[in-house]
Amino acid sequence: MSHKLHRILLAAILLTTTGAAATPTELDTLTEKLQRATSSATEADIVRLLQLGRDTGRPFQVAPIVKNYLAQSARPTAPVLLAAAENAWLTADYRTAVTRYKAYLKLADQGPESSAAAAQMYAIQIDFLGDKEDAYRFMREAGDNHRQSIAARRFDAWFLSEARQRRDLPAVAKRLAVALADKLPLEQERLLFWEDVDWLMDALTRAEDAAPALSQARSVVSQLRDNKLRSLKYGFFIAYLDYKVGRAGKAEDAAAKLFEPVSSAARAFVEAFPTAATLQSICGVFAGGEGNPLDNAEWARQEKQKRELFVAAFEKLNDADRAAMMTWRPANRAAPRQLASAAQWAALGAQFPAVFQKAENVRDIPFLVQTTDLAVIKQQAQFLKGVPTRSAALINALAASDDFTQSAQALWRNDAWHLPAGEFFSILERELWPAYRSLPHADKAKTADENFQKMLVAIGGEMIAKSPVALLDPRSAQSYLYAVWRYGSSDEYDKTKFIEAAKQLEWVPWTDRERREALEGLHRDTRIWAANIRKSKDAKAQAVLSQLVAIDEALLLLLDTKRVIVPAKAPTPLAGKVAELTLASRRRDSAGYIKAAREGYPLVRDYDVKKTPGGASALELFLRTTEGITGTAEFHAEVVADQLALGTGPRFDLVASTIVGGRSRWGEWRRVPREDQAEVAKINAA
């Protein structure tokens, strides 16, 4: 609304007010009298003058006299100040009007008249002066005292909006407490204030210091009507904030005692509303504020009590809500590792096996892999059988056999299809083997270091030498060769199996650096051994002299950087295509790269169905577009079309993310460089 229109409307309103009948003659007479002797003017004279100026539409005529009077008056009364403020408003002297309204409000009794004056002042400050800061400051300090009129209460929304923008939580809490005390009709209260109540309570859970607003916030919650959900939810919030404020400087046992009302409020909330939304709200507050990433430090305070509450609440949910909690990722960070311990998750899995048998539900859950209790492993294996996650794979392998070689073989055959091939050996060595050793075994020899080496001798050819693992993790090949060198035969002089093992790796196209790191130390050790054999007088040692040349030649062949790698000689079709692709990538041979990828893709297109060991990793290799390779869009479009025909799911997600993320220039669909848009169009057309 324009300033001019405001003035017209206000003048019209003022002209309708009651008062003694006014005539221009009376106004002129009084004006002339007071102009001659302002100092002798009485309060009644000034009030009548202002009334006459207003009622006759001649406020400018009386303004100078009023100004002089106020300048000479030590203590003008409230009626004079109110009438003088109205005069300044009518003469468009907005700053003077605000000054006079403020002086009036300091003196006036609280009531409808003072409230109407406050509302008029707010309108001038905000609409005419644009001085939001001054209006906000007055409302914050004294506005609660002048809300008797509807006109003043209409500024509640403006004040709450400003306070929210400034994150002035005490101000929001105080105004809401006052506003709710008005006991408006419930629907009106809901429309006017409940959104602000929600904002306040959420903000308090995230505030570094909620104490200044806590008392008023408690009053707000106590005044909520006919809304059990909000009452219980925010009652829990207040209980946690009380605990948070009160725990400062307290010992652990005292803090635990303070937490008891929090536990009671949380349990009441869950009892009434046993849903994932309820539990997420509770856990969010436990970890630093609803809607925030979970704060490890905040969660760690009374963690035991918090986890016990989580477990008890989880048991009350239905399966859909349990799944929602298991896959909860606030701020895209997995929550389950904080919510419960591995042992607690294991117990919950035993209680609710159906929901734990879905891979998408348990992907982020930290199951108990390293334990001294075999029964716990077997209990978890009952509900994790066939679940394609890392921890489930380890648990199932441990439960498969008391023999480590058989456990490792189970891991390879049942789960290598989804585990990263480049990490498979590390998973064996640094996760499965320590977990196996922590379990009780009647035969202590089973946990001896050499038992791991003997496992490699037994099945390393299948797991490493004949698979992409050897290429993606050269250290695995090194460990395999060392194991065969030391334990390949009960006869320490018989190295025939080592020569065979070395020949199994001739297909692997390592880089020069990878060759050196994997093989030079081993080659040095074999030469030292050979030198000792030649010096030995032992008949057995002399009998194997013929092997020495073969051993050296086998390792020299692997170390030869100029040797031509022939992928067709690889032990399996998949290994061969991975080798062919790798060589083409190094040559930046786009045609050769695409040929290898196109021929290798059918071997792993449905790796998750056929459980092809190394399948997920190989599919990623075939779909990446490495530096210097161009023209892959047509092949990628073929793959996308084929995968869509097979059905969407985790495998399709892998395909889509690899096609985009596997290009150094892309990163994600919406950041594709302009010059590559045509390739995107081809893929999208699939």
Structure description:
By secondary structure, the chain is mainly α. It contains 42 helices and no strands. It is elongated. The two termini are 56 Å apart. The model is unreliable at 1-20 (pLDDT under 50).
Which characteristics define this entry?
686 residues, mainly alpha, 70% helix, elongated, disordered N terminus
Shape: elongated
What is the β-strand count?
A: 0
Distance between the termini: 56 Å
Average predicted local confidence, pLDDT: 90
By DSSP (H or I, 4+ residues per run), the number of helices equals: 42
Strand content: under 5%
Poorly predicted ranges = 1-20
Write down the Rg: 41 Å
Fold blueprint:
Blueprint: H1 3-15, H2 24-36, H3 43-55, H4 59-72, H5 78-90, H6 94-107, H7 112-128, H8 132-142, H9 150-153, H10 156-165, H11 169-180, H12 186-206, H13 211-222, H14 228-246, H15 252-258, H16 260-272, H17 276-286, H18 296-300, H19 303-316, H20 319-326, H21 336-339, H22 342-351, H23 353-356, H24 359-362, H25 374-384, H26 390-400, H27 404-415, H28 424-438, H29 449-465, H30 469-472, H31 474-487, H32 496-504, H33 512-535, H34 539-543, H35 545-559, H36 573-587, H37 590-604, H38 607-610, H39 615-623, H40 633-646, H41 650-661, H42 677-685
Summarize this, please?
The chain has 686 residues and is mainly alpha-helical. It contains 42 helices and no strands.
